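Protein in question quoted in full.
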Amino acid sequence: MLDGKTIIVTGASSGIGAAAARIFAKERARVVLGARRKALLEEIVEEIAGDGGEADFLAGDVEDGEYNAALVELAESRFGGLDAALNNAGTTGEMTSIPDMTEANWHNVIGVNLTGGFLAAKHQIPAMRKRGAGSIVFTSSFVGYTAGFPGMGAYAAAKAGLIGMTQVLAAEHGPENIRVNALLPGGTLTAMAGDDPAYHEFIAGLHALKRLADATEIANAAKFLVSDQSSFVTGSALIADGGNSINKL
């Protein structure tokens, strides 16, 4: 399904990003991993190599344009080009109301989630043009799309912004055979979800399936979007939320 494709994955040191990197590599993609935590990236690359896959990494901050450019350069120099990207890096920031929120928190959450996505696309699209095709996926959220959680104003704004940017990029670059989609996970068992069983139980109850997702379930949805199986899918907000958006009981 992904044989021979070169794919950038950001936020790849844990959670959905790490799961996606492993799954893409098992499908014979060549993966370039990005995140801040170098040691964790090294471990995942070594694991992929040990399983016979191809991977490389570069640690850095997605809010930095030069870092996004360097990830693309690594994909091109190591693997010959860029076919797809899962721009997954994100942060929830402080859980607080807008009146009580610091400007620093607002800028941090918007910077990582939304500006990071902008900078990724800015550098990834020219590389995909060279290939004559490409697929970009942004990890968005049901928060800010089908639900508004108190205390998550900055996060909701950033993730909703990714969907708007997705639609514009899809319209702009569809004629170049570059597809752009947003992936909207529901509650997922990652470090971002914390380790409080009572909180997990509450969040699980918001979903029709009455459970949280495993990171691999969301990564498999990402695999569909970066693969040619979704060749006529662009500009979409693909909901993989366990029925969160339709559950009222």
